[in-house]
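Deliverable D5.2: sample structural annotation.
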Amino acid sequence: MVIDYERWRVRKAWTLTLLGLVATLYALPVGMGTGHTPAQNAIAFAVALVGVPTAAVGIVITPVLALGARQRRIGLGIDAQGIWYRNSHTHQMAMVPWSDIAGVGLCGTHGSGKPLKPPLAIDLFPANGQVPGTLRMNLVDSAPVAPSLPTQRIRIPLPGWSSVQPHIEAAVTRFAPQRWVAPYDAYRPTGGSPFSGLVCGPGPGAVVLSFRTATVKAVLRMAVPFLLGVGALGYVYFPSVFAAGGHVTTVGKVIAALIAGPLLGIAAVGVRLAVRAVRRGNGIAFDTVGVWRRDARFDVLVVMPWSDIAGVGVAGARTRTWSLIPGDNSRVMTYLDLFPSTKETVDLYPQLRPALIRDKPVRPGLSGTHYRIPLPQFTGSSKKVHEAVNQFAPQLWVGDYDIGRISPITSSTPPNR
């Protein structure tokens, strides 16, 4: 049994896009026409509120996912030898034989006697502490599922498609029925820190930067495009309320509908990403070992020891390179810069490769090739990073510096002209 994550993801995206298009084709003619009752307009408005952003986002994102699926290799396999897992993005490839597995379970939400709902994950309970090196960062410690099973388990995320549950259960009961554990409601360990419950995590006294507060504020900012999109749709379905004088033209309705789609799509995508980040944990930590990074998007956990770091700094990108207002130091974004000690160090952390940039050196002796990781906003991150580095590795502190305008794609500054 093989689960192709990318195929499931693309199939889900096409399905949602098709449903969004169907809902849009049903709702928009009602808004464009005349003679409909208020009840019909209200129903069409509710359908369009969901269908229009779904169709708008799907038309843009689904083809990109379909084209990129060939480059990504993420999958889970179960056969007579054991359980296989491959993730080309995090450079993981492992096979856990049945002899090293004490139990296999599925965890999600609302699992008490009912089918699990996403987000789903498969838990592999190691026998005698046998954990493959490539899966060591997936090891978590949570509430015991059964008296005979350890509290530690290898947690591998599954596609957000609830129908994978019967396939996994059938495969495990076929090859190793004695190791199957009933599904349970325990997707993520509880705790205020994004590193809570992880066996391989920061030690006591670590300084943790969580993206939770910044994410919640980002969700609140999504209210602006959402309200604007609702107003644009209201112009289509309730002109007497949203239009001046209550008179609108068909061309005006079409323009309003075209404006509503992207606005509602931006709001939907922003809320979706933010909720996912809050639920799955996203943060940076500093302790006596080094710098820890947990990436919620791909469930990546990596630690970079202080011995592999030549310098740590905080880069700030400002709204403009100069300002007419005295003392204007407003920033758009702050970044954590980690400078590797040697060129060979870069090859040791493939999980951090998306954050690797090539920029002009900050100071002599430091490489221009370094890691630039966004810091959570509105939480005093720069000060916390400074205090953490001074506590654990003061000799590595580079400083807090400005980098001017920054590219949103490469996270690097433009060349001097």
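Annotation notes: Confidence is low (pLDDT under 50) at residues 319-329, 408-412. The radius of gyration is 25 Å.
The annotation will be released with the project's public dataset once the embargo ends.
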